[in-house]
Q: What sequence folds into this?
């Protein structure tokens, strides 16, 4: 899953998971916690979360909270208050922009929503968020990572660490993939012909299928079609020309470096 794991203390951890995987992750954690002195609570129905993202997010949020946001580093968090409402504030996000994710008790959802709107921030839906995370080349569960795509194949090598005397599920395979490489890898895609690429479209090289699109769409920032794809490793070099099958037609594309855009 693509999730954030926060250590609040040596014996208290907060996990914020992909919304589509709530039950699956909860069951997985409980299964692997059997026989251990661990208590797991699913607080999903009691909590809400908003992402407050963009270049001006610090300036707009600072007057509302009782901490100095300049001291909150990326991937760190603070318990604080937003207009006297207790919140869990993390400098995280899935947009490729600076920003925050704000968690709070569900009954405060409408109140916090209205407070944030008064700052001049504009609401944005999941489609807008997904176009931004694609431009930033962030992997999304069910697309670039899944039960059949490893973090190494997804290009997330920095998340896999061969720590001594610490065992974790999949360590042997992942460490081996990190040192020896994989047969397939996630790459960036540009479509040269006119069209839109979507998930699961097949990718070809000289008439031979070499992979498939994991994410694709129109980039508002660059005003062109971009995407991510899982291809055979020997074709991952930027500049490699490819074809993508779209509705029975083979359109010209090219492998490109990623991220397409990132401001953090």
A:
């Amino acid at each position: 899953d693509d999730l954030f794991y926060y250590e609040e203390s040596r014996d208290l951890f907060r996990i914020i998971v992909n919304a589509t995987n709530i039950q699956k992750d909860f069951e997985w954690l409980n299964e692997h916690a059997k026989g251990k002195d661990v208590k797991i609570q699913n607080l999903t129905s009691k909590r809400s979360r908003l992402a407050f993202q963009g270049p001006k997010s610090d300036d707009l949020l600072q007057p509302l909270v009782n901490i100095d946001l300049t001291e909150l580093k990326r991937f760190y968090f603070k318990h604080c208050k937003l207009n006297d409402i207790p919140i869990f504030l993390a400098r995280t996000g899935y947009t490729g922009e600076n920003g925050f994710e704000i968690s709070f008790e569900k009954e405060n959802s409408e109140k916090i929503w209205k407070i944030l709107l008064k700052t001049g921030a504009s609401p944005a839906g999941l489609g807008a968020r997904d176009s931004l995370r694609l431009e930033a080349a962030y992997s999304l569960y069910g697309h670039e990572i899944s039960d059949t795509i490893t973090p190494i194949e997804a290009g997330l090598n920095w998340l896999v660490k061969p720590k001594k005397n610490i065992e974790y599920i999949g360590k042997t395979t992942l460490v081996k993939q990190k040192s020896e490489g994989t047969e397939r890898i996630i790459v960036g895609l540009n479509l040269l012909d006119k069209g839109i690429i979507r998930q699961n479209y097949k990718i070809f090289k000289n008439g031979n299928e070499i992979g498939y699109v994991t994410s694709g769409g129109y980039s508002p920032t660059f005003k062109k079609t971009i995407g991510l794809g899982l291809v055979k490793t020997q074709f991952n070099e930027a500049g490699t020309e490819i074809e993508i099958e779209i509705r029975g037609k083979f359109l010209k594309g090219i492998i490109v470096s990623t991220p397409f855009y990132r401001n953090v």
